[in-house]
UniProtKB/TrEMBL annotation:
Name of the protein: DNA-3-methyladenine glycosylase I
Organism: Belliella alkalica
Top-level division of the source organism's lineage: Bacteria
InterPro entries hit by this protein: Adenine_glyco, DNA-3mA_glycosylase, DNA_glycosylase
Length: 199
């Protein structure tokens, strides 16, 4: 575990150390159970953009993505035309990868299909963990899995439904970020805080 020099009383998961934005994300968002579809969609866009890159890189471009993708309004994103894709390829505030940009638009359409079928994307995704947070009680980053049976099953189902750039590793990262899994290390100050939020 690492301790921030300016905050010696708080022990954190070591992966978040490096820059203040990363620490803030760890302290305030990562692992908190999410039931808001818009938040789920935001993370799906950001995580699909991460493929092959670091999460730190994506966090630094998060506001660029917010602006480029209409504050993560999936209804607007789903209707973005090809001409806008060309425009975004010139935007340095996001990852300028045509396939990833097109995937975001495609995924918005599939996202709404799931909403129509299940009432909400939240209903759909939480069903893969039986509506309960998986608490791994990790004592070391080395024990954290990159994928699980749940992420394999979810990723496979999303792929079947037409989603792109959401393999099992990416989906497990989504499950961690949106609190379907509590993967804070047990010594991290956020572990118990997030655990108390579990449904």
């Amino acid at each position: 575990m690492s301790i921030l020099p300016h905050d010696p009383n708080k022990i954190r998961c070591p992966w978040c150390m490096g820059f203040e934005q990363y620490v803030k994300y760890h302290d305030e968002e990562w692992g908190v159970p999410v039931f808001d579809d818009k938040v789920h969609f935001e993370f799906l866009i950001l995580e699909s953009a991460q493929a092959g890159l670091s999460w730190a890189t994506i966090l630094k471009k998060r506001e660029g993505y917010r602006k480029a993708f209409a504050d993560f309004d999936y209804k607007i994103v789903a209707d973005m035309p090809e001409s806008y894709v060309t425009e975004l390829l010139q935007d340095p505030s996001i990852i300028r990868n045509k396939l990833k940009i097109e995937a975001a638009i495609n995924n918005a359409k599939q996202f709404m299909e799931i909403q129509s079928e299940f009432g909400s994307f939240s209903n759909y995704i939480w069903d893969f963990v039986d509506g309960k947070v998986i608490d791994r009680q990790l004592d070391s980053l080395q024990n954290a899995p990159a994928t699980t049976a749940e992420s394999d099953k979810l990723s496979k189902d999303l792929k079947k439904r037409g989603f792109k750039f959401l393999g099992s590793t990416t989906i497990y990262a989504h499950m961690q970020a949106t609190g379907l899994v509590n993967d804070h290390l047990v010594d991290c100050f956020r572990y118990e805080e997030v655990r108390r939020l579990a449904i």
